[in-house]
Amino acid sequence: MPTTSIPARVRFAPSPTGHLHLGGARTALYDYLLAKQTGGQFILRIEDTDRKRLVPGAEEELMIGLRWLGLQWDEGPDIGGPYGPYRQSERKEIYQQYAKQLIDEGKAFYCFCTPDHLARVRTEQQKTKIIPHYDGTCRELDPDEALRRVKAGEPHVVRFKSPREGSITVKDALRGEITVENRTIDDYILVKSDGLALYHLAAMVDDHLMKITHVIRGSEWLPTLPLHSHIHRALGWQEPEWVHLSVFLKPTGKGKMSKREAADLIKDGHSIFVKDFDGLGYLPEAVVNWITLMGWSYDDHTEFFSLSDLVEKFTLTRLNPSPAAINFTKLDHFNGLHIRSLPVAEFSRRIKPFFEKADLKPDDETLINIAPIIQERVATLDEAPEIAGFFFRESVEPTAEDLIAKGLTMAQSADVARHSLSVLQRCQNVSPEAAEPPMRELVEELGLSAGQVFCILRSAVTGQKVSPPLFESMEIIGKEEVLKRLKRAIDLLDNAG
Ligand code: GLU
Asked: Do 377 and 453 fall into the same domain?
């Protein structure tokens, strides 16, 4: 059942202050799903009013990450749209206009308090164990007097005049109604001394003007939800539906991941940053599947979803507010499932860059031939060159030790290799159909185990102890090359002793 029958307008509103991480990606994903499901719009808005924290290149990285996940926005800073601009730094005058409206109506005020004064107040309040709040010095200044001081160029900020009496009841879609005493709400700064609006004002104004129906965001915004409701109401606006998502905990389930811990993950082939997943061999389909289920479920057993399944099945009502521990084992599991569900041609296209990164020159014809035999065997795409790089090497380099089968001497192993060579020479080709039966007969004749004989052959042909199925691999490599590699192995064994 869809969550809403009206087309939803939802926005992902990141601050370009660092890498796009799992939390942000999940928010964007839920935004996207709700928008697409209801025939609405998914909007990208860049919240860049905190100029000190801007990271060059972060906006581009965000866009690349969202596109990689398959979450294309309908309106945004790069493509425009009917409610632009979509970068908050380009909307300064709009916010000032609403700040002025609030001041004129006595719902916000100019504050001239110096940082010194504020610091002193805070220290006093901490001493007496009162929760630090603005002390109200400028709250009741005469408006004309305040305006005169502003015009005279005195440094100032604009603060919201939070009601002192009564309480406010706000509603979060996951947690229901929350009632808060108004006196506990601070007179938050809306516009800083440099004239730039802060999130509390800018995001509320934008959500209203951009006709946002659902605000889906991190639960770190729950404490200031009462303030945000007050701001909407003070401006006479209808509030959007508020949806605060669960937090992510580290894999142990104990606490949030620190920056340091996040950076260290890469050593184990993991990451919480979207930019890293591609290089680590994860499919965007798997990442989408994985993060969707960190805080949402369809029922108690279905776990494989494509993005289009999710567009159909997603519901706000099945979001879970409890914290979700990041589980990388689950990610590997989903990656395996999605790898196996790719069409062979698509899988071979996706593994190609990993061979190139390993300095190999994969040709498309061989790639498409090897794809079916490795698609079953990799958990991440970067494993492909590890198990199948030998298809693209001029020669493989097993050591003499690698060519000795368990329980056999070097000379006996050389003998087995010689017998194998003569069997394979007589085969029409080295496919499983043509070469496996006579090789199994050889195993019998020699009174050895298949493991012993095939281990020597495998090392000789692939240079590896573990490989995709041996005869399938040999067929792709071709009889001539297989015989050449086997002869080299025999030479190696003969000369090593
Ligand atoms: N810019 C805010 C952040 O990065 C966005 C919060 C919101 O979605 O409203 O956390």
From this structure: no
Gap from CA of 466 to ligand 1 centroid (Å) = 48
For this structure, is 259 an active site residue?
yes
Residues 436 and 365 in one domain: no
Closest CA to 244 of 226, 261, 262: 226
What CATH code is carried by the domain that includes residue 435? 1.10.10.350
Residue 203, ligand 1, Cβ within 6 A: yes
440 is in which domain, residue-wise? 401-496
Which of the listed residues 201, 221, 224, 225 should we mutate to test ligand 1's pocket, taking the one with most ligand atoms within 8 A of CB?
Answer: 221
Q: CA 193 to CA 200: how far, in whole Å?
A: 15
Q: Poorest-confidence range of 48-57, 269-278, 287-296?
A: 48-57
Within 8 A by CB and 6+ apart from 121, the residues are: 132, 134, 135
Give the active site residue among 129, 259, 361, 406. 259
Predicted confidence (pLDDT) per residue in 73-83, tens digit: 999 999 999 99
CA 302 to chain centre: 21
Query: Which residue in 141, 146, 144, 188 sits closest to 163, CA to CA?
Result: 188
Task: Indicate the pTM of the whole model.
Answer: 0.93
Domain-terminating residue out of 229, 245, 261: 245
CB atoms within 10 A of CB 368: 14
User: Could you tell me if 125 and 179 lie in one domain?
Assistant: yes
CA–centroid distance, 13 to ligand 1, in Å, is: 5
For 341-380, write each residue's pLDDT tens digit: 999 999 999 999 999 999 999 999 999 999 999 999 999 9
Ligand 1 center–CA 217 separation, angstroms: 6
If asked whether residues 124 and 223 sit together in one domain, one would say: yes
The ligand 1 atom nearest the CA atom of 47:
1
Q: What is the tens place of the pLDDT at every residue in 129-144?
A: 888 899 999 999 999 9
CA 358 – ligand 1 centroid, Å: 39
Residues 114 and 233 in one domain: yes
Pairing of strands 9-12, 41-44: parallel
Sorting pLDDT into bands at 50, 70 and 90, what band is 258? confident
